[in-house]
Design brief:
about 325 residues, alpha/beta, Rossmann fold, 6-stranded parallel sheet, 12 strands
């Protein structure tokens, strides 16, 4: 009897915040009949050799699968190739799909890194990618197999949705603050509530630091009117490794905000800006200083419309709509 499988790597030493997206995908796929296989590549060379040569072949011996989704990357090229090899040997009719979380080649200037990654992508039958921009980049780099557009990551949110429609021109930002260098340079008339680890001591007056919470607890405190999506060291545009990456990826915090009921303020050149504008769930800005004018010029009626649209998508994210829809297309 054939079945469907999702394969995921987990780092047991990290907090679960970094694994939230992967865990949500596992849980939503299990709701539609997938089984889950976890691999831990964060081990010694000897243990990795044991996994590759003994444990993985033993676990897959005699199995039959229709679809196998591998949450990419598994941070071990050796284990990734071994998993594909044993699946092909035991279940040659299975379709192997990489569900892309991150593409290192989009964050590195080392062409060798990009070439190695593209070679691994060729081992799969299909890719699930973040958005049309990421799809276009892969096509330009020569990837010619089928790709499916996720649109946005789902987000299982255990907290009640923030359905407060009173517009107070309030704003929040959540993230790992060590890489959010632009916050140090903020000069806003509006106050911004900031959440996350590694808060710096020399914060501008417009920042109201609200502490650090788990991914499950944080939405309880997201009671503002908007969530900000911005990255990198500059307030004028999104630059640097993290800022430039926004041109291609779907930041998971966007899903955190929307699933919590918050419309979005996002850099207009971010890949996800198209989704935000098409669904009328927020505002696209050119530079951070545009925030004051954007908040001040928005009417209560206009905000109500954004809020209504956001709550509709929040319900989709909370129930795994985009996960289940994309799997129907592979």
């Amino acid at each position: 009897m054939s079945s469907d499988l999702v394969i995921t790597s987990m780092d047991p030493g990290k907090n679960m915040g970094g694994s939230k997206a992967k865990l949500d995908i596992i849980n939503f796929l299990e709701e539609i009949g997938y089984t889950s296989y976890i691999v831990n590549p964060y081990v010694s060379k000897l243990k990795k050799l044991y996994l590759a040569e003994f444990a993985i072949p033993k676990d897959f011996k005699g199995t039959r699968y229709n679809n196998v989704i591998i949450q990419f990357p598994i941070p071990s090229e050796k284990l990734t190739k071994k998993l594909i090899k044993v699946i092909r040997e035991n279940s040659p009719e299975a379709k192997i799909v990489f569900w892309i979380h991150d593409i290192q080649g989009l964050q590195s200037t080392d062409e060798e890194v990009t070439e190695r990654e593209l070679a691994i992508f060729e081992l799969a039958d299909e890719l699930i990618v973040h958005n049309q921009v990421m799809m276009g980049w892969l096509k330009n780099r020569g990837y010619s197999k089928k790709m499916v557009n996720l649109e946005i990551f789902d987000y299982a949110n255990p907290q009640p949705v923030n359905d407060n429609e009173i517009y107070q021109q309030s704003l929040c930002f959540a993230g790992n603050l060590f890489k959010s260098e632009f916050l140090r340079k903020l000069q806003l008339e509006h106050t911004i509530d900031v959440f996350g680890p590694n808060m710096f001591t020399d914060a501008p007056d417009c920042i109201n630091y609200r502490g650090q919470y788990s991914p499950e607890e944080l939405p309880k405190y997201l009671i503002q009117n908007f969530g900000l999506i911005w990255d990198g060291p500059s307030v004028d545009t999104c630059t640097g490794t993290f800022g430039e990456y926004m041109r291609f990826n779907n930041p998971h915090k966007t899903s955190l905000y929307i699933s919590s009921g918050l419309p979005i303020i996002i850099w207009k050149e971010a890949a996800l800006a198209e989704f935000v504008q098409r669904n009328k769930i927020g505002i696209a800005i050119e530079k951070v200083s545009d925030i004051d004018k954007a908040l001040a010029s928005l009417s209560q009626t206009e905000y109500n419309e954004m809020k209504k649209n956001t709550l509709a998508i929040a319900q989709k994210l909370r129930t795994g709509h985009y996960t289940k829809a994309v799997v129907q297309k592979i």
